[in-house]
Design goal:
Blueprint: H1 3-30, H2 34-60, H3 70-91, H4 95-124, H5 129-164, H6 174-177, H7 183-196
Helix pairs in contact: 1-2, 1-3, 1-4, 2-5, 3-4, 4-5
The structure holds fe (ii) ion.
Length: 197
Amino acid sequence: MKNDQLHELLYQALETEAGGVQVYETALRCAVNEDLKDEWEQYLEHTRTHERMMRSLLETMGLDPAKETLGRQIVRHKGEALVEAMNMALKGDNPQAAQLVAAECIVTAETKDHQNWELLSEAAEKLPSADAKALKDACGQVEDQEDEHLYHSMGWNRELWLESLGLPAVLPPPEEEKDVKSAEEAARAKQSRKQMV
Ligand SMILES: [Fe+2]
């Protein structure tokens, strides 16, 4: 495995979590639906914990959490763009539209976050022992939450869009009701929505 690129992924993963905190803090200002607000408050707390975990993981692996890389700067830039997009939406006079923008921004942020952890878990299998243990432990603690963040957010985004179109929507989404934690379960939950509307 190419260690330099693994380090790059770790720096990007830290930056993704740090940006995720900003994204959730801004999204909460856009949230109208009370269930969604509760969900995002919970995910904000998870994301704060993930950021701390990622920072200490880098230190355990002998890396400087403050080190800048171009890839990391790009991840930061994208996070800032998501925050800016939500702030633009908040300036409009349509709270439902701002909530929808926030739901989309969260899916975008969580897609990268989910991919980071999936890749780190794969990489952990190929690392020498001490680093492998630290990385595997972190992945073991975080991966279920990252699955939930992505698949539930995709469900909220889809149903809020349908509602905005004046079409039947299932809120909270079936992903939430069925406590979805994998792509397969998410696909089944999406299928089942037809019987729920
Ligand atoms: Fe995370």
